[in-house]
Specification:
- It catalyses: ATP + protein L-histidine = ADP + protein N-phospho-L-histidine.
- Keywords: Kinase, Membrane, Phosphoprotein, Transferase, Transmembrane, Transmembrane helix, Two-component regulatory system.
- One of its GO terms (cellular component) is plasma membrane.
- By secondary structure, this protein is of the alpha+beta class.
- It folds into three domains: about 120 residues, no CATH class; about 80 residues, Signal transduction histidine kinase, dimerisation/phosphotransfer (DHp) domain (Helix Hairpins, Orthogonal Bundle); about 150 residues, Heat Shock Protein 90 (2-Layer Sandwich).
- About 45% of the residues lie in helices and about 15% in strands.
- A five-stranded antiparallel beta sheet has the order 2-1-5-4-3. A five-stranded mixed beta sheet has the order 7-9-10-12-11.
- Strand 11 and strand 12 form a beta hairpin.
- The longest helix is centred in the middle third of the chain and has 50 residues.
- The radius of gyration is 52 Å and the shape is rod-shaped.
Length: about 425
């Protein structure tokens, strides 16, 4: 940097100043004295003769020296340990050819127009050390300032970025089990916080739905339990109030019927509670649904109405799972069909690729299309033909669908012109050769 600056000044015809932190000397052919010198060279070697060797005259092209032997000046006391004190010193040089000087500039420098000049800059250890210290100090200061600025920018950027998160935290802290209706504001930034807010809102919605379902379930269960209890209590109170006029066998029959109804409802509620808390599973056992359907058809109790119950299947239909749960599922479907069938119930079992498909079809009044999914909700009974008076608890189909889902299957109501047809699809167990 210093060398380039000196060369540029000389080309402009300007004699460089002697006050320089770096020692330098400019010599030229045809001159006994230096064109210019500065730094420690001008201080340690005052006089008329130049210290550095002059460049060769003519057009000879020589490799410039990298070291120069500098004589010792006995009358000079260096102020610094590494100041100019003679010996061999490292130098960097640059030559200025006669053609490099602009018109009239050679005369301003006191050299001949055809003279060649050489610029020497001495590389002293203390100069490099001082430059290193200055550079280190500047870098340290710049680094500290940069670190403070980066920390400040990062702090405020994080504070601004996390404002939506804090708003989400404050709002979710106010959500209670009794009132999960609060929703967080979804920022319009489109980044991860937006996804977080959307996910939290979805979670809160599921909690709200679960809480509403639980409240509805408790209310429905209380209502279902109250009806047979009220009937039972009224029958017993009338019998106790008028014992001499009471038909005790009839009263006992009514009490037994309502007690059985309470028992069935309690068992269904307990089963639903267990299904809600247990994870879906397919046990190690394999159940032949064809054999199960045939056995239930033969063992189904005779009803007050004449019903024909047939099972249309002969080929094995193995499905993995719990035999008791499969029996409860199929029995619920048959009980539901028996309550609403007019004359006939038909069960079919078949295999379809990797599935076992079982259908229970009755010839009753059927189910409106709008209620095809609602009938699987808990405590739901349809009016008229599928009413409370026929003895159901309103939990049979809900339990059947939960059992189907537990075995990784599905239970749906398929459209039919006459009656209702429930289709159960379950994964087919692999044959022994396929395992």
């Amino acid at each position: 940097m210093q060398l380039e600056s000196l060369c540029e000044q000389l080309r402009q015809g300007v004699v460089p100043v002697s006050t320089s932190a770096v020692p330098y000397e400019v010599v030229a052919t045809g001159r006994r004295t230096a064109v210019a010198s500065g730094g420690a060279l001008s201080t340690a070697y005052p006089g008329t003769h130049h210290v550095m060797p002059a460049p060769p005259a003519g057009t000879a092209e020589l490799i410039p020296p990298t070291t120069v032997h500098i004589p010792v000046n006995r009358h000079y006391e260096p102020r610094e340990k590494f100041d100019m004190a003679g010996g061999t010193q490292r130098v960097v040089t640059a030559d200025i050819q006669p053609g490099d000087l602009k018109r009239g500039k050679a005369a301003a420098l006191g050299v001949a127009a055809d003279a060649r000049m050489r610029v020497y800059v001495v590389l002293l250890p203390y100069t490099a050390e001082a430059n290193t210290k200055i550079t280190d100090r500047l870098l340290l200061q710049a680094g500290l300032v940069g670190l403070v600025l980066i920390a400040a920018v990062a702090y405020f950027a994080v504070r601004i970025a996390l404002r939506p998160v804090e708003a989400i935290r404050v709002l979710t802290a106010s959500v209670t089990a009794n009132d999960p209706r609060e929703r967080v504001t979804v920022p319009a930034t489109g980044h991860e916080i937006t996804a977080l807010a959307t996910t939290i809102n979805s979670t809160l919605q599921r909690l709200d739905d679960a809480a509403a379902q639980q409240r509805r379930f408790v209310a429905d269960a209380a209502h279902e339990l109250r009806s047979p209890l009220t009937t039972l209590l009224a029958s017993l109170e009338v019998a106790l109030a008028y014992p001499e006029r009471t038909d005790w066998p009839a009263a006992a029959t009514t009490a037994a019927r309502q007690t059985r109804r309470l028992q069935a409802l309690a068992e269904d509620l307990l089963l639903l509670a267990r299904l809600d808390t247990r994870a879906p599973t397919t046990g190690p056992e394999t159940v032949d649904l064809t054999d199960l359907a045939s056995r239930l058809t033969e063992q189904y109790p005779v009803t007050e109405r004449p019903l024909t119950l047939t099972c249309d299947s002969t080929a094995p239909a193995p499905a993995p799972g719990n035999p008791d749960e499969y029996e409860r599922l199929l029995r619920n479907l048959i009980d539901n069909a028996a309550r609403h069938a007019t004359h006939r119930i038909q069960i079919t079992v078949r295999t379809q690729n990797a599935w076992v498909v079982l259908t229970v079809h009755d010839d009753g009044p059927g189910v409106p299309t709008a209620d095809a999914e609602r009938i699987f909700e808990r405590f739901v009974r349809l009016d008229d033909a599928r009413s409370r008076d026929q003895g159901g608890t309103g939990l049979g189909l809900a339990i059947a669908r939960d059992l189907a889902h537990r075995h990784r299957g599905t239970l749906t109501l398929t459209p039919r012109t006459l009656g209702a047809c429930f289709e159960l699809r379950l994964p087919r167990a692999p044959a022994p050769a396929e395992k």
